[in-house]
């Protein structure tokens, strides 16, 4: 085996390694990383751009290398393949049915091809295949680049875990001035009182004497709140694992009772039909630190993703 | 801890509502149809979960791969001491995942992922199951008016992304005169129904992208749509004698129901910020 053959093999090996790395990325990151292997899963580290475009970068480089190893260094092949990859991504902007156009994918491709080219520049490999095999490799490379730059798989709504230590949770009840409603959860009507639970945040209290003009009266900050019920002037509300009793008395709302560890914390599932994902390892970490899950922070990772609900709303 | 007390200034209204002014309030207020809390008399009923005993941290390595098993339950808290509820009963619900709790008279109607469970409160401190009426798997609040139960079933809307996933969304109406043996009377196709309320032969339903819909259900065999309000997707609603309050993606909206047309007329909206 001569030197050129070994270089060709080296390119193939590097290319295959990058290919597998890209697939792993897909599998573990986009495929929900059930074992918590990726430390940045759900933390938003690197953000959506990093996660979306890393596989594209790896795969574009992988196929540049594989293609080169297989078909030699004739410039026509290089340009042919690079233009096809670019062209396909650009075509997605015109024809969404082909996939999701993403400027960052374009940048990944633009970055990957010169990288692969530079890495192999001083070792021009010899073509080891001919004729039909070249066509086969070109088709394979093309199809896989279509796959990598194709539509995003599943929606990637991540609900990162807000972990609270018990003392923090149990000091978390505060009567505050009214604040804007950010998410509206369960509602409760009691006489002239309208209560709106904002999932995992607390309860908005409104004077509803005139339903045509409800007046915000207060915000009861209750970490992990999802449910409310009132009897007379007593409000019962969950706070993650605790059941709280809040007494409305004249101008005041006072926390008068707390049954500790009576409840199991709820999840965002009951407030949405969205397909979302909660990083398991964050739940584990919270549990191992002796804390409780007192809420979730919704993160829409895929810039291109529209929730089912929003899609319907726009119809 | 010290609870910071803030002059709310507006809550003098509380005093009047203990006497139960108006239909259905009876001192316990009204919740939406997707509530997990229900107060009946001197008891608070909660759809809860608890960790099974045999999973109790004995094998931490296992927990890494299998999250601890949670069992669903209907928990009963006595409100004899108003300030400190005391748990007096835990009834395991293992036929399906319970999602919503609706109290009518001496009974609780539990909307589960695959059926309607009717629970008797003849002993308020010891609920007992009277019946379970199965349907296909969906998310489904249940409300009751008189001897008729109304269940909405939602499996999501057919969208581009779920085009291959034929969805089934409907309103099911049951005769629950015999609580131990509910009889299905009819079904009515819907878009993607969430919460609902029934009042005077009219059903008000949050129906996904179809908005807030009003159906006549006085004759369960002849369910007819009579009105609809275009609105952001609402998840749940409360209907009282004079008022309809909905909660959803657009915030909390209040309507008055026009007696002549049954059309909900918007009074106000607490919009999301």
Biggest β-sheet description of chain A: 5 strands, antiparallel
Task: Give the class of chain B from helix and strand content and strand pairing.
Answer: mainly beta
Q: Summarize the main sheet of chain B.
A: 4 strands, antiparallel
Total helical segments of chain A: 8
Using the alpha-carbon principal axes, give the shape of chain B.
globular
Radius of gyration of chain B: 20 Å
Q: Overall 3D geometry of chain A? A: elongated
Structural class of the helix and strand makeup of chain A? alpha+beta
N to C succession of SSEs of chain B:
HEEEHEEEEEEEEEEEEEEEEEE
Order of helices and strands of chain A: HHHHHEHEEEEEEEEEEHEH
**Biggest sheet of chain A: strands side by side, in what order?**
2-6-5-4-3
Estimate the helix proportion of chain B, in percent: under 10%
Tell me the fraction of residues in β-strands of chain A, as a range: 15-25%
**Number of strand elements of chain B:** 21
| Head-to-tail CA distance between termini of chain B | 31 Å
Average pLDDT over all residues of chain A = 75
